[in-house]
Amino acid sequence: MTAELVRGQNHPLPGTRLEVRVSSGVPVAAGATLSDADGTVPGADRVAHPGAPSLPGVEVSRQAAAQHRLAVDLEAVAADVHRVAVWLALPEGTGGPVRFGAVAAPFVAVTALDGAEIATFTLTGLDSESAVVAVELYRRQDTWKVRAVGQGYAGGLAALFQDQGVPGATVLAAAVRDAVASGLDRSVAAPPPRSEDGDRFRRTAPPLAPATRQAPAATPQSPVAPPQPPHGPAPASAATPPPAPDAPPAPDAVTTPGPAPAPSGAPIDYTHPRRRTAAPPPPPPPPSAPPAQPGAPAAPVAGDAGGWSMEERLYNQVWGMFEDLARTTAAYRSAVDFAESRMEQELDSALSDPRNRIGAAGDAARAEARARCAELTGRAREALDRDLAQLTAESEVVEPALPAAFARWDHPVWHAYSVPAEAPMALRLGDLHLPERPELRIPMLIRLPLARGLWVDSGRRSSEQALMTDEGRLRRLALDTAVAHAARLIAVHPPGAFTVQVIDPAGSGAAAFAPLTASGVLAEPPASGAGGVAAVLARLTRRVDLVQMALRGGAGTDVLPPDLDTAEQLLIVNDFPHGFDDRAVTQLRYLADEGPAVGVHLMMIADREEARAYGPVLDPLWRSLLRVTPVPDDHLADPWVGHAWTYEPPRVPEGSQVLHQVLASVAEARRRSRRS
């Protein structure tokens, strides 16, 4: 089975003779560096590149191309080679792309000689970089493994070679450039560069501080490259990677005020009305402030990212903070791993002589190795603490400036709430944090309209905290979490633009749904019993079918039945699978798969274990939904470095009436809208 790696993951190699295959959207140069146990390349004769394509055990392509097959025989490399790093670089001075952020993400596959894939890696998360270490084949305790690296360098090959300690890095990079240019003269011309209008947006704000807005210095085991803001995750360089399963969605496009709604008769468009793909303008200059002390980080400013509006700048800044936290934590963990690995190697080397295993010599060797490990770990912790302090300062500035859609329920902005005239570009689903600094919370924002449904997991086996929570209490927390999500979705849309329906077969959620029912924001009372379940599912299935047919036929809204509600729809399903027969389950799966594209979204409150009776038939349903939990849980993974992020669900403050007040304002706005 092929291992699909994310940045930082490794996988054992079943053999030593293999190929590394590269696919990219434009011609790239490919090569390899052969380093020792410390990750240092001792000389230019340990670099395989188009001008010197053959080294013992490694052979690379002689020219830039969109497809490469690098041959590797790990048994044939020199005995002191412990790492073979495969790198890619965009040709310079050819009129083609000058950064990886402007081209499709390269794909790398490590295969056996018969072509069978062993491991694959898609190099998402790149932006201004023109050279990148893609994967690394490394020796660990006499076995070879592959690691997905994805470390990019805005300074090109010269910066990459310098980082790996290659003597004469600048001269060697120039030689590679000349060799690639000679090869390109004999090759088919590359396609024209991608236009700015078609380019994916990347934040252009000036660095907040060198430690948090620049790629971390690579260590011999550092797999980190700047991840991309989870646009809607993805949430994916720190460019936009595709969201991994159970990953926060990444921001997929930039939004800006758009045209007025289409007149009656025009095709229905369920995309966000303010979404654009063109690059937005850079952020405005920050207000004048006293000059910072020399060497001190710049004072954080809310909205320092690029964007067409303050909302969009804050959105991009939040995900910039997310990627910075992911990157700096990955650098710290990699440095600690390297320090411990180095200590093990030093101990093995010092104690390989039986005479040194006991006595003063052995004790001194152990003490020296441990002291060096502690020194390296301490320096890594200092860098981490510096970066975390700057991110904490930024969070303290950004959090109070967030609009209602991005703010916590205890934010003062909700007390001045008024129903908006247009929907926001994104919505806060909760908070994310890492164990290195649990109190530093990053808002988890997802793009609107929802591309995936939500599954509020009410099961007790989902996490340690869920196991420690009473079953009845956990179910009530799951219902309260779903109501908080639904209330926020209703509150951030204009009157009548978002409709909520509830299926509660046994009526067990009546108390939790009371804020929705009492305020009058539901389209109708929660459906109960088999008949109620069937009626709601049939109505929504019909809506999806009719809108799909209208869209495929290029028809406008005038062909739809007058009783069809074309507003965005959210269906909340409680206690699944109780009250659902096979037909209802099939309809639910259909809504989950086809509904989001035509404005029908699903939110389920369910325990997956209770649905085991249906067997694997429901597995696609669970995978199609974004799982969130009613208690903190570390089930979310970013798609760049694979951190396990702890998700904190939204909490309405104990005893607060803010949710009731917001829903009452929504209901009143709807009544006024219907009268006008």
What is the compact description of this entry?
This protein is an alpha+beta fold and 676 residues long. The chain has helices spanning 156-163, 169-185, 210-213, 310-350, 360-398, 464-467, 471-491, 514-519, 529-552, 582-594, 619-624, 658-675; strands at 3-5, 10-12, 17-35, 47-48, 54-55, 58-59, 65-73, 83-89, 107-111, 117-122, 131-140, 143-153, 254-255, 275-276, 426-433, 442-447, 453-457, 498-503, 568-576, 600-606, 625-628, 633-637, 644-648.
Structural features, described:
- The protein is of the alpha+beta class.
- It folds into three domains: 3-194, Lipoxygenase-1 (Sandwich); 208-259 and 266-284 and 308-448, no CATH class; 453-648, Rossmann fold (3-Layer(aba) Sandwich).
- The chain is built from twelve helices and 23 strands.
- Strands 1, 2, 3, 4, 5, 6, 7, 8, 9, 10, 11 and 12 form a twelve-stranded mixed sheet that branches.
- Strand 19 (568-576), helix 10 (582-594) and strand 20 (600-606) form a beta-alpha-beta unit.
- The longest helix is centred in the middle third of the chain and has 41 residues, at 310-350.
- It is elongated, with a radius of gyration of 28 Å.
Mean pLDDT across residues: 81
Helix share, percent: 25-40%
Largest beta-sheet characterization: 12 strands, mixed
In DSSP terms (H or I, runs of 4 or more residues), the helix count works out at: 12
Q: What structural class is derived from the secondary structure elements?
A: alpha+beta
| Multimeric state | single chain
Whole-number radius of gyration?
28 Å
Task: Domain count, please report it.
Answer: 3
Number of E-type strands:
23
The span between the termini is 62 Å
What global shape is seen?
A: elongated
Unreliable stretches (pLDDT < 50, length at least 5) are: 185-264
Q: Strand content of the residues, in percent?
A: 15-25%
